[in-house]
Protein backbone atom coordinates (compact mmCIF):
# COMPACT_ATOMS: atom_id res chain seq x y z
CA UNK A 1 0.00 0.00 0.00
CA UNK A 2 1.33 3.42 -0.97
CA UNK A 3 -0.49 6.31 0.75
CA UNK A 4 -0.39 9.84 -0.64
CA UNK A 5 -1.85 12.80 1.22
CA UNK A 6 -2.84 16.23 -0.08
CA UNK A 7 -4.63 18.38 2.47
CA UNK A 8 -7.31 16.45 4.32
CA UNK A 9 -8.08 13.97 1.56
CA UNK A 10 -6.11 10.80 1.04
CA UNK A 11 -5.50 8.24 -1.65
CA UNK A 12 -4.41 4.67 -1.14
CA UNK A 13 -3.27 2.06 -3.62
CA UNK A 14 -3.00 -1.70 -3.37
CA UNK A 15 -0.86 -3.09 -6.16
CA UNK A 16 2.38 -4.71 -7.20
CA UNK A 17 2.86 -6.03 -10.71
CA UNK A 18 5.66 -8.24 -11.93
CA UNK A 19 5.98 -9.87 -15.31
CA UNK A 20 8.58 -12.10 -16.92
CA UNK A 21 9.88 -11.76 -20.47
CA UNK A 22 10.70 -15.17 -21.84
CA UNK A 23 11.09 -16.98 -25.16
CA UNK A 24 7.38 -17.81 -25.37
CA UNK A 25 6.75 -14.14 -26.19
CA UNK A 26 8.85 -14.40 -29.37
CA UNK A 27 6.89 -15.81 -32.31
CA UNK A 28 9.77 -16.65 -34.63
CA UNK A 29 13.55 -17.12 -34.43
CA UNK A 30 15.41 -13.90 -35.15
CA UNK A 31 12.39 -11.77 -34.19
CA UNK A 32 11.90 -9.41 -31.29
CA UNK A 33 9.04 -9.46 -28.79
CA UNK A 34 5.81 -9.10 -30.75
CA UNK A 35 3.32 -8.04 -28.15
CA UNK A 36 2.81 -5.51 -25.44
CA UNK A 37 2.34 -6.95 -21.97
CA UNK A 38 -0.79 -6.16 -19.96
CA UNK A 39 -1.49 -6.52 -16.26
CA UNK A 40 -4.84 -7.70 -14.98
CA UNK A 41 -7.61 -5.17 -15.59
CA UNK A 42 -7.85 -4.55 -11.84
CA UNK A 43 -4.13 -4.77 -11.04
CA UNK A 44 -4.34 -1.64 -8.90
CA UNK A 45 -7.36 -0.62 -6.85
CA UNK A 46 -7.43 3.08 -6.04
CA UNK A 47 -9.26 4.30 -2.91
CA UNK A 48 -10.11 7.97 -2.32
CA UNK A 49 -10.91 9.01 1.26
CA UNK A 50 -12.17 12.06 3.14
CA UNK A 51 -13.22 14.02 0.05
CA UNK A 52 -15.08 17.31 0.38
CA UNK A 53 -17.34 18.80 -2.30
CA UNK A 54 -15.34 19.95 -5.32
CA UNK A 55 -13.19 18.65 -8.13
CA UNK A 56 -10.01 16.66 -7.60
CA UNK A 57 -7.21 15.66 -9.93
CA UNK A 58 -5.35 12.38 -9.57
CA UNK A 59 -1.89 12.70 -11.12
CA UNK A 60 0.55 9.91 -11.90
CA UNK A 61 4.31 9.66 -12.39
CA UNK A 62 7.04 7.10 -11.90
CA UNK A 63 10.33 7.04 -10.06
CA UNK A 64 12.81 4.85 -11.90
CA UNK A 65 14.92 2.61 -9.72
CA UNK A 66 16.57 0.49 -12.41
CA UNK A 67 14.59 1.10 -15.60
CA UNK A 68 15.53 0.81 -19.27
CA UNK A 69 14.65 4.07 -21.07
CA UNK A 70 13.22 2.07 -24.01
CA UNK A 71 10.49 0.61 -21.80
CA UNK A 72 7.17 2.44 -21.74
CA UNK A 73 4.80 1.84 -18.85
CA UNK A 74 1.23 3.11 -19.28
CA UNK A 75 -1.89 3.08 -17.09
CA UNK A 76 -5.63 3.23 -17.74
CA UNK A 77 -8.78 3.17 -15.64
CA UNK A 78 -10.91 0.12 -16.47
CA UNK A 79 -14.01 0.80 -14.36
CA UNK A 80 -15.72 3.24 -12.03
CA UNK A 81 -15.19 1.69 -8.62
CA UNK A 82 -17.70 1.72 -5.77
CA UNK A 83 -19.02 4.25 -3.34
CA UNK A 84 -21.29 7.24 -3.06
CA UNK A 85 -23.10 7.95 -6.38
CA UNK A 86 -22.37 11.66 -5.87
CA UNK A 87 -18.67 10.97 -6.45
CA UNK A 88 -17.95 10.62 -10.15
CA UNK A 89 -14.52 9.65 -11.59
CA UNK A 90 -13.89 10.74 -15.19
CA UNK A 91 -11.00 10.42 -17.62
CA UNK A 92 -8.21 7.88 -17.63
CA UNK A 93 -10.06 5.47 -19.94
CA UNK A 94 -7.21 5.20 -22.45
CA UNK A 95 -3.62 4.20 -21.76
CA UNK A 96 -1.51 7.14 -20.59
CA UNK A 97 2.29 6.70 -20.76
CA UNK A 98 3.68 7.28 -17.27
CA UNK A 99 6.55 9.75 -17.28
CA UNK A 100 8.94 10.93 -14.58
CA UNK A 101 6.98 14.16 -13.98
CA UNK A 102 3.45 14.24 -12.53
CA UNK A 103 0.69 14.50 -15.12
CA UNK A 104 -3.10 14.54 -14.72
CA UNK A 105 -4.58 11.06 -15.07
CA UNK A 106 -8.18 11.20 -13.87
CA UNK A 107 -10.60 13.66 -12.35
CA UNK A 108 -13.11 13.20 -9.55
CA UNK A 109 -16.18 15.39 -9.02
CA UNK A 110 -17.63 15.27 -5.52
CA UNK A 111 -21.17 16.50 -4.94
CA UNK A 112 -21.59 14.87 -1.55
CA UNK A 113 -20.09 11.90 0.18
CA UNK A 114 -16.62 11.27 1.46
CA UNK A 115 -15.16 8.02 0.14
CA UNK A 116 -14.86 6.21 -3.16
CA UNK A 117 -13.18 2.81 -3.43
CA UNK A 118 -11.80 0.19 -5.76
CA UNK A 119 -11.24 2.25 -8.91
CA UNK A 120 -9.60 -0.44 -11.09
CA UNK A 121 -6.41 0.37 -13.00
CA UNK A 122 -4.53 -1.66 -15.61
CA UNK A 123 -0.93 -1.33 -16.81
CA UNK A 124 0.65 -1.87 -20.22
CA UNK A 125 4.35 -2.41 -20.83
CA UNK A 126 5.87 -1.97 -24.26
CA UNK A 127 9.29 -1.44 -25.78
CA UNK A 128 10.72 -4.80 -24.74
CA UNK A 129 13.60 -6.06 -26.85
CA UNK A 130 15.84 -9.11 -26.91
CA UNK A 131 18.77 -6.67 -26.98
CA UNK A 132 17.89 -5.31 -23.52
CA UNK A 133 20.15 -6.23 -20.65
CA UNK A 134 18.90 -9.32 -18.81
CA UNK A 135 18.05 -8.10 -15.31
CA UNK A 136 15.17 -6.89 -13.18
CA UNK A 137 13.86 -3.53 -14.39
CA UNK A 138 12.20 -1.67 -11.53
CA UNK A 139 10.16 1.52 -11.23
CA UNK A 140 7.73 2.90 -8.66
CA UNK A 141 4.41 4.41 -9.75
CA UNK A 142 3.21 7.36 -7.64
CA UNK A 143 -0.37 8.67 -7.55
CA UNK A 144 -1.16 12.09 -6.05
CA UNK A 145 -4.56 13.68 -5.39
CA UNK A 146 -4.98 17.46 -5.42
CA UNK A 147 -7.96 19.78 -5.10
Record keyword descriptors for this entry.
8-stranded antiparallel β-sheet; Immunoglobulin-like; 12 strands; 147 residues; 4-stranded antiparallel β-sheet; mainly beta
Care to give the gist of this entry?
The chain is mainly β and 147 residues long. It has no helices and 12 strands. The radius of gyration is 17 Å and the shape is elongated.
How would you describe what is shown here?
With 147 residues, the protein is mainly β. The protein has one domain (4-146): Immunoglobulin-like, CATH 2.60.40. Helix content is 0%, strand content 49%. The protein is built from no helices and 12 strands. It has strands at residues 4-6, 9-14, 37-38, 44-49, 54-66, 72-77, 82-83, 87-90, 96-97, 103-110, 116-126, 138-146. Strands 1, 2, 3, 4, 6, 7, 9 and 11 form an 8-stranded antiparallel beta sheet that branches. The chain has a 4-stranded antiparallel beta sheet with strand order 8-10-5-12, with no helix packed on it. Strand 1 and strand 2 form a beta hairpin. It is elongated and about 55 Å long. The two termini are 22 Å apart.
